[in-house]
Amino acid sequence: MTSGRFRRIAAATTAALAVLALAVAPASPAQAGGKPRPGHSQNPWLKARVLHIAHQGGESEAPSNTMYAYRRAVDRGADMLELDVHSTADDVLVAIHDASVDRTTNGTGLIRDKTYREVRKLDAAYHFVPGQNAVPGLPPASYPLRGIRTYDRKAPRGYQASDFAIPSLRQVLTRFRNVPITIEIKGTTDADTESFLHNARLLATELKQTHRTRNIIVTSFNDLAVAEFHRLAPEVALAPGMTGLTNYFLAGVRPIDGTVALQVPVTFQGLPVATPEFIARAHADGYAVHVWFSGTAPEDEPTYNRLIDACADGLMSSFPTLLERILRQRHIARPGTPGIDPCATR
To answer: Which of 83, 181, 194, 238 has a CA that sits 20 to 30 A from residue 214's CA?
Structure first.
């Protein structure tokens, strides 16, 4: 998810403005007529904390949504990967954030207009600047990983040129079979609902064919895409879209069946969203809270620590090395690993 898209979609509905008020003074879902609270025992994602989730594989430390980034993040301790999917002209789902290849690669044009073979040839590290994500237009020396994909530069030890390509979702699911993954369904434009629905259908098929229906969370900004995916793959866990989140924040209306986590920004237009009060309310209603940044707050040690202490169940970090260092220094409990849970008694 990105803060730019979050702002555009939220601006399209007046209800989204109420998110801010409820982050400070949340309403009671019980008073709003919600279903009985499911409790912790029915949602394993409430027990899988504190999750270190590598957002796009850690896009500020490695080229976004590449196998190099995913492996690097997992090697550094990430518990879960976050990625985005678009479909090619020949209906292959690929892991890339943008609908076009312009910002991150040496190519131009929309993913949906290219075959998988054409997409696969591109250099996904072409515009990557360490510490800044993809930044086109800088001097060539600014891009230390440019050219590995095209064999113009040697790959780091232990990696190969293909690790710097745009991967298919199937490659990621197969390579990281034992790593939990959260997948965001993308569309060509916010208004192109059919592209979201098309990708939702492809994703449902892909997860079933690869037998990856567990340890997966699927989401999208487009609620219709989430609903279509759930219709086809009801066994896969969900995080709601923008409307589902807005309705929950505004009136305590429960999101779509199958929801296990609420994926929210740290702030909205500078005001806090991922507050201790909101997180406590979500927990009481049986939902985990995974927090993303994407420009909504500084990704630094104080912010990470504040969200850990606010009882967030997972942080989607673009700086996996930094987040892992903090979690280890504080001896924070992790999935399957004993440690300190600062929220255990709350």
So the answer is: 194
Domains of the chain from N-terminus onward? 3-99+169-329 (3.20.20.190)
Q: Quote the pTM value.
A: 0.90
SS3 for the chain, per residue? CCHHHHHHHHHCCHHHHHHHHHHHCCCCCCCCCCCCCCCHHHCHHHCCCCEEEEECCCCCCCCCCCHHHHHHHHHCCCCEEEEEEEECCCCCEEECCCCECCCCCCCCCEHHHCCHHHHHCCCCCCCEECCCEECCCCCHHHCCCCCCCCCCCCCCCCCCHHHHCCCEHHHHHHHCCCCCEEEEECCCCCCCHHHHHHHHHHHHHHHHHCCCCCCEEEECCCHHHHHHHHHHCCCCEECCCHHHHHHHHHHCCCCCCCECEEEEECEECCEECCCHHHHHHHHHCCCEEEEECCCCCCCCHHHHHHHHHCCCCEEEECCHHHHHHHHHHCCECECCECCECCCCCC
